[in-house]
């Protein structure tokens, strides 16, 4: 059976609750598939939190910390968490733990500095999610989207993300230029941006958006405390109010082949978020 976690929101990003199987249609490729299982319950989650503490976050790290604190207020007591930080090297600050308060303390003690190996840290986080204890798994990335020190490529990361069966949620903090909320701290020490920097300014946030879109998560751009808190609460509620749709795939197909999945809803003005495919085992 193929299991597809689904989040449904209204135009304002608020989760829509109380839907049933008949409110959904599932397609693999162009072929509709019959829904054979449907659940809608607040099941415990395993969540990996990726916090960017690199130098480009100097002006926005406080906002990112506020996002984490707001998110932890929405959790289920049975949830477990993994904390990773982004800097010159990816660091797994903790293994999986249910002690959210202890992680909050560790986050509060962090300070900005170093280069930005964002892709490498997300890559590490996805690999660590294989050891998660809960079947419902998600990765929450708090970053401005900049990357100037990763060894892995975007393509390598995207392949792992699509294979991992982990929903990725991203909150892009600041203006995405590595310059903080006010844009006064440059990505590089030089006063004038170089062409490669300007390209990265656009590529980073786009990568985070794409990771969320293709894995069925949500993504938000925030510039201040109120927006950040609202985004954290919406993501927390989305995790708490998910639908899980199950269907039987075609009996034949080449091993390792990408199978495209689409989920639609007949609810007016609803936005549906679900992973857009899987690799046939």
Task: Characterize the structure shown.
The structure is a single chain. The longest helix is centred in the C-terminal third of the chain and has 21 residues, at 195-215. With 281 residues, the chain is of the alpha/beta class. Helix content is 29%, strand content 27%. The N and C termini lie close together (12 Å). The chain has 2 domains: 2-40 and 258-279, no CATH class; 45-238, von Willebrand factor, type A domain (Rossmann fold, 3-Layer(aba) Sandwich). The radius of gyration is 19 Å and the shape is globular. The chain has a 6-stranded mixed sheet, sandwiched between helices. The chain has helices at residues 61-72, 100-109, 118-128, 154-164, 195-215, 225-240, and strands spanning 2-9, 24-28, 31-33, 35-39, 45-52, 80-86, 91-92, 136-143, 167-173, 219-222, 243-247, 258-265, 271-274, 277-279. Helix 1 runs parallel beside helix 6 (225-240) and helix 4 (154-164) packs parallel to helix 5. The chain has 6 helices and 14 strands.
Q: What average pLDDT do the residues reach? A: 89
Whole-angstrom Rg: 19 Å
Number of domains: 2
Number of strands: 14
- The amount of beta strand, in percent, is 25-35%
Considering the chains and any ligands shown, give keywords for the structure.
281 residues, four-stranded antiparallel beta sheet, single chain, globular, 2 domains, alpha/beta, six-stranded mixed beta sheet, Rossmann fold
Short description:
By secondary structure, the chain is of the alpha/beta class. It has six helices and 14 strands. It folds into two domains: 2-40 and 258-279, no CATH class; 45-238, von Willebrand factor, type A domain (Rossmann fold).
């Amino acid at each position: 059976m193929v299991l597809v976690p689904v989040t449904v929101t209204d135009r304002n990003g608020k989760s829509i609750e109380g839907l049933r199987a008949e409110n959904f249609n599932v397609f693999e490729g162009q072929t509709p598939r019959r829904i054979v299982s449907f659940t809608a319950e607040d099941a415990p989650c395993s969540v990996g939190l990726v916090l960017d503490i690199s130098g480009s976050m100097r002006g926005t790290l406080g906002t990112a910390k506020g996002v984490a604190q707001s998110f932890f207020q929405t959790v289920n007591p049975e949830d477990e968490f993994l904390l990773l930080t982004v800097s010159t090297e990816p660091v797994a600050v903790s293994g999986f733990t249910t002690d959210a308060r202890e992680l909050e303390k560790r986050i509060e003690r962090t300070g900005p500095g170093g280069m930005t190996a964002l892709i490498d840290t997300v890559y590490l986080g996805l690999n660590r999610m294989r050891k998660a204890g809960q079947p419902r798994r998600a990765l929450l990335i708090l970053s401005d989207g900049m990357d100037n020190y990763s060894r892995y490529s975007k393509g390598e990361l995207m392949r792992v993300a699509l294979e991992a069966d982990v929903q990725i949620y991203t909150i892009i903090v600041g203006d995405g230029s590595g310059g903080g909320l006010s844009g006064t701290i440059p990505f590089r020490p030089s006063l004038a941006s170089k062409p490669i920097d300007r390209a990265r300014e656009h590529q980073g946030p786009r990568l985070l958006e794409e990771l969320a879109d293709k894995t069925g998560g949500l993504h938000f751009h925030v510039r201040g405390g109120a927006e950040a808190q609202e985004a954290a609460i919406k993501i927390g509620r989305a995790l708490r109010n998910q639908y899980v749709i199950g269907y039987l795939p075609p009996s034949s197909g080449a091993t390792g082949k990408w199978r495209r999945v689409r989920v639609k809803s007949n609810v007016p003005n609803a936005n549906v978020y679900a992973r857009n495919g899987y690799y046939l085992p």
